[in-house]
Amino acid sequence: MCSSAELSNVAWRKSSYSNDDGADCVEVADNIPGLVPVRDSKNPGGPAICIGEAAWAAFVGMVKDGPSLGG
């Protein structure tokens, strides 16, 4: 998880993959070098996780490509 000091000045934005009816809402912040903080927008005071930029890029790439079960 990210420390509150790391997140004190971040600008959160809703993920373009979140839907508009309030479900599946993920927010990310882009302004911490090397890390991508991620949190549940329905619980902005709750915990956030910090994911390395390379791991986040790989995850987003897989989401964009869609599901591919079984290799």
Structure, described:
18% of the residues lie in helices and 25% in strands. It contains 1 helix and 4 strands, in the order ββββα. Strands 1-2-3-4 form a 4-stranded antiparallel beta sheet. Strand 2 (26-29) and strand 3 form a beta hairpin. The radius of gyration is 13 Å and the shape is globular. The model has no long low-confidence stretch (mean pLDDT 82).
List the helices and strands and how they pair.
Elements: E1 12-14, E2 26-29, E3 35-40, E4 48-52, H1 53-65
Antiparallel strand pairs: 1-2, 2-3, 3-4
A few lines on this structure:
The protein is of the alpha+beta class. Helices cover 18% and strands 25% of the residues.
Strand order in the sheet with the most strands:
1-2-3-4
Give the CA-CA distance, first to last residue: 30 Å
Helix/strand-derived class?
alpha+beta
Annotation field: number of helices: 1
Q: What's the rounded overall pLDDT mean?
A: 82
Global outline: globular
The fraction of residues in strands falls at 25-35%
Radius of gyration: 13 Å
Largest sheet properties: 4 strands, antiparallel
